[in-house]
Amino acid sequence: MRIENLLDFRDIEKCPRLVIKLGSALLVHEDGELRHDWLRSVASEIAGARERGQEIIVVCSGAVALGAAMLGLPGGGRETLAHAQAAASVGQVFLIATWAQLLAEHGLVAGQMLLTLDDLEGRRRYLNASETLRELLARGAVPIINENDSIATSEIRFGDNDRLAARVAQAASAQGVLLLTDVEGLYDRDPAHPEAEFLPEVRGVTEEIHQMASGKSSSGKGSGGMTSKLLAAEIAERTGIALAIIKGVDDLPIACAMAANRGTLFLPKRDDNAWKSWIGGRLRFNGSIRVDQGCVEALQRGKSILAAGIIGVFGEFERGDVIKVEGPDGKMIAKGMIEYDWDECDAIKGLRSEEVAERLGHLPRACVIHRDHLVLL
Ligand SMILES: Nc1ncnc2c1ncn2[C@@H]1O[C@H](COP(=O)(O)OP(=O)(O)O)[C@@H](O)[C@H]1O
Ligand SMILES: N[C@@H](CCC(=O)OP(=O)(O)O)C(=O)O
């Protein structure tokens, strides 16, 4: 689906690859108990989406609030960093066990990924995370993601799962993000204010839009309030990803919001993937690979580059560098982000996939340059 075809906010539900983020305020009752039936209804919505052929990634908060109740910690476990980290450690086990069980009721498998800021900022770790996500989705699993709160300290943490959800959407090349929270979307001021007005659509998160939000979580369980959701919307819009905020309090929350046609849609600024435009905009390269004619034709059909198609390796590039791809005649045909260091590329060039592991002595990447990281000229 191209984002320019997005007519209204309900279309976001149909994105082929969608990130759904569930906030703490929704997951946990006042007394710190998990809202089990509600979560079961979300799992059934995910199963329905999978049946329609949609790929779903879940970013799920709530570990701190759940763990705090289990450990008897005051203030929802947020009074000290040590409390929050211990609470997250305990709560996350329960959370993921519940997800595994609820998805299994629909014959689905959950895959846990606990990420820190560094995992999505550094190129190498970003590539690792995006490859794991792709593989989980390709195998039909549902990735369930949270921040790795039990080890993340302020320097290496997002602190809120809204921005994490937007970054995960980038890493997974998703087209849309749905943030489920306890409010219908963005209001022009604190929604508790009697004159607060609802904004159904935002084109560009400007300074004026930022001024509308506060970082306060009215439930006291969330982190970042509306402020972090706007920061997430900014990340998404720059990357051509549509993001919507909906109220997710009731059972079957996505169906409810879509039926009511109520939510705030943040429209992306452009319809191409910024990751690709970043690659496409690169002017300097640390090296190049030359591929055979069969590979050139495969690329034109939208395939990734495999070791078997490589006939030459030039320059000393590293995994994660953007390099040139040349056709058999040496003419540049594409730019792409390489999955191997130059010497490994040289060692595996021309090899079939099953021979690559043997030559490298470790598990190979699925390809040398993935089509999501490749820009044809
Ligand atoms: N301008 C605004 N529009 C809507 N909600 C806002 C605004 N400013 C602050 N908020 C608060 O943001 C809260 C949602 O954020 P948060 O509690 O962190 O939720 P979550 O746990 O789902 O991430 C709402 O309950 C609301 O009180
Ligand atoms: N990672 C934390 C949640 C942090 C957070 O962003 O919470 P929320 O604002 O409720 O999405 C946890 O699992 O408790």
From TrEMBL:
One of its GO terms (cellular component) is cytosol. Substrate binds at residues 61, 149, 161. ATP binds at residues 21, 181-182, 223-229. CDD domains: AAK_G5K_ProB (cd04242), PUA_G5K (cd21157). InterPro entries: AceGlu_kinase-like_sf, Asp/Glu/Uridylate_kinase, G5K_ProB, Glu/AcGlu_kinase, Glu_5kinase, Glu_5kinase/COase_Synthase, Glutamate_5-kinase_CS, PUA. It catalyses: L-glutamate + ATP = L-glutamyl 5-phosphate + ADP. Catalyzes the transfer of a phosphate group to glutamate to form L-glutamate 5-phosphate. This is Glutamate 5-kinase. It comes from Erythrobacter dokdonensis DSW-74. The lineage of its organism: Bacteria, Pseudomonadati, Pseudomonadota, Alphaproteobacteria, Sphingomonadales. The gene is proB.
